[in-house]
Amino acid sequence: MAAGVAAWLPFARAAAIGWMPVASCPMPLAPTEKNKRQDELIILNVSGRRFQTWRTTLERYPDTLLGSTEKEFFFNEDTKEYFFDRDPEVFRCILNFYRTGKLHYPRYECISAYDEELAFYGILPEIIGDCCYEEYKDRKRENAERLMDDNDSENNQEGSMPSLSFRQTMWRAFENPHTSTLALVFYYVTGFFIAVSVITNVVETVPCGTVPGNKELSCGERYAVAFFCLDTACVMIFTVEYLLRLFAAPSRYRFIRSVMSIIDVVAIMPYYIGLVMTNNEDVSGAFVTLRVFRVFRIFKFSRHSQGLRILGYTLKSCASELGFLLFSLTMAIIIFATVMFYAEKGSSASKFTSIPASFWYTIVTMTTLGYGDMVPKTIAGKIFGSICSLSGVLVIALPVPVIVSNFSRIYHQNQRADKRRAQKKARLARIRVAKTGSSNAYLHSKRNGLLNEALELTGSTEDEQHMTKGTSLIESQHHHLLHCLEKTTGLSYLVDDPLLSVRTSTIKNHEFIDEQLFEQNCMESSMQNYPSSRSPSLSSHHGLTTSCCSRRNKKTTHLPNSSVPATRLRSMQELSTIHIQCSEQPSLTTSRSSLNMKSDDGLRPNCKTAQITTAIISIPTPPALTPEGESRPPPSSPSHPTNIPTTTTSNIVKVSAL
Amino acid sequence: ADSGDAELELSVVRHQPEELEELLARTKFSKKELQSLYRGFKNECPSGLVDEETFKLIYSQFFPQGDATAYAHFLFDAFDADGNGAICFQDFAVGLSVLLRGTVQQKLTWAFNLYDVNKDGCITKEEMLEIVRSIYDMLGRSTSPPPRDSAPSEHVEIFFQKMDRNGDGVVTFEEFLETCQQ
């Protein structure tokens, strides 16, 4: 039901009194309105811009974010308003939807940004009003095509990596000459021979010189052997090419049916037929006709020229317009031919001997050619002749712009596709650089971290401070996460320092050994931690855990001790109890972006394992370091958060920080 | 004639309701209620007037299974107190006030007015049949069991018998009141 109409519902219910006099049965009781509130103004703060509306306006659509209790998650107690960290421009449209019942799509907005906002607020795009729906759908389709295009070409590029069979490589070489130099050579060679073949066809009909007897000979007859050799060479090349393509085609049946292959066949057939039927007088006439088909070789150029392909494609797509043109022309020709015939019937020595004979005149006149070989002589004929030429202009001019615009559209699409492909390459290269940059940063800090661990074991601490500066909080959390991943799988990213790799193994041993120690510590700390979970001294990166870990069990259960897995479980639970602290908006979102993850869920499944691994990580370092751990600002290398596990609450809390 | 039409159009394009104070006096709504009512009204009809077509459209949305246009027509006539072919906010508010906050007498008067299609002070059988038929149309066919075609007339028979005390073929206001108040 539309929004505004809901306002009329009380009216309709009131009007139901009119049914009462004739009601067969008593009316049912009206539903009681629970907690009927006075309508109040709600303030929606979207990125600083304040929107105000009535509460009932929002409640018109209870299955959206704003209309349901879901918006309570965004309620800010301090300012008594609902804060959304989203785009205020798009929010304007969304709020208007609640007010007017119609969702509009602003043309200046990016389609994917708009879609995201709609998804966030829980509004289905199908609700978009008729005025804007077409635009929305068009742009969405364009975008999807573009994405598909990108994906396709990406797949094509990446598909080259896995081993292709010889056949597939050949097919790719044929279809896309830029893939290898051999393909390019082949491409140019065939192009050259097509040109040669066409030129010889043309030249062999040129008269060159006379032979004694005063007969004009064409070049073809004079240098018959030379031309024959040329022709043979070209046809051989074309045959070989055709056979190779046939061999390489993924679907031979489909290849045979395709237009290009038909052109190929038509181009080389006359030669073979000519070979077979040599000098048989009866069929030489037919043979001569066949030679005409040799000119189709020129269509082979369409493989080499994109413009030609576009033209062909345009004609195909404008088939209906062309058909209409043809049909209307035919109609007009018949009409005018008939009229001209009967008009000119009277005049003597008229060339308009029959209606079909008049067709020629009509066509020549309507297309404004006007050869002048047939002209009307009577007055009536001249009058109708002029009408004919005037109408010809109109009939032909009408469908032509449609065809032209189609051609232009397809041509521009192709241009755009090429441009996009070129831009993509540059873009992907840049993205790749950024990605390697971040993984390099991780390896760098890991190296530092391992160095630190090694140093810690030996007790020296001077270099630590030096190493740890220069990495931000986000980076340190990211690195910690990657470290957790390594620990989970037992594999690790390559650190190119042989000395360190030795030390890491020793560290691992220590980790497992000291688990018992950790377990005891955990028991103690769990007792202490639970009540103090909201201690304000916690460092800021707890915020992260709150959102993911706290959703798991929130209670500590004091399991009977001893088994290692149980320890892990407990520490996991314990880790999870610690973060109900919600002072800061989780850096979950920021870390998510820095990890380039595409979905929310990416982080959560990792949580479970991560917690286990933090337990492991957390063990090891001797309690001596604890005071240092406290004093140092949020650590950057993965080993530091692990400092923990002893008596101080704040340290343990750090453990859980993912 | 053209300028006259243009004038007429201009005056119809935007209609301002009576002062809030006057409406407060004429209806039994509180200020806040009137405000809220007007907001809803104006939202749906920015021009301030509801013509019959719009009214039928709105009313039909509440009864998607059947055809509410006939009944909406009668309802429109009942609301359109001054009979100018459009419901303005006064009509709307006053009518609603009667229906929601009026005395039983007032409500029944309103109902009688609804049934009396030609507003001649009495309800004939044909008028009642029209109303009842429109109600059945509104209901639609997808009930179980589906309504028989003779259902409206049967329905009218029963009720008309009950209402028409003196058996003169029409139901006057007094008879109507009496029957309904039993």
Task: Please give a quick description of this structure.
The complex is a heterodimer of chains A (658) and B (182). With 658 residues, chain A is mostly helical.
Please give a structural write-up.
The complex is a heterodimer of chains A (658) and B (182). Chain A has 658 residues and is mainly alpha-helical. Among the domains of chain A are: 41-155, 2-Layer Sandwich (Potassium Channel Kv1.1, Chain A), CATH 3.30.710.10; 176-304, Four Helix Bundle (Hemerythrin (Met), subunit A); 313-422, Orthogonal Bundle (Helix Hairpins), CATH 1.10.287.70. Helices cover 62% and strands 4% of the residues of chain A. In chain A, the strands form 2 sheets. Chain A has a 4-stranded mixed β-sheet with strand order 2-1-4-3. In chain A, strands 5-6 form a two-stranded antiparallel ribbon. The radius of gyration of chain A is 41 Å and the shape is flat. Chain B has 10 helices and 4 strands. Chain B is globular. With 182 residues, chain B is mostly helical. In chain B, the strands form 2 sheets. A two-stranded antiparallel ribbon of chain B has the order 1-2. In chain B, strands 3-4 form a two-stranded antiparallel ribbon. The relative contact order of chain B is 0.11. Chain B has 2 domains: 30-101, Recoverin, domain 1 (Orthogonal Bundle); 104-181, Recoverin, domain 1.
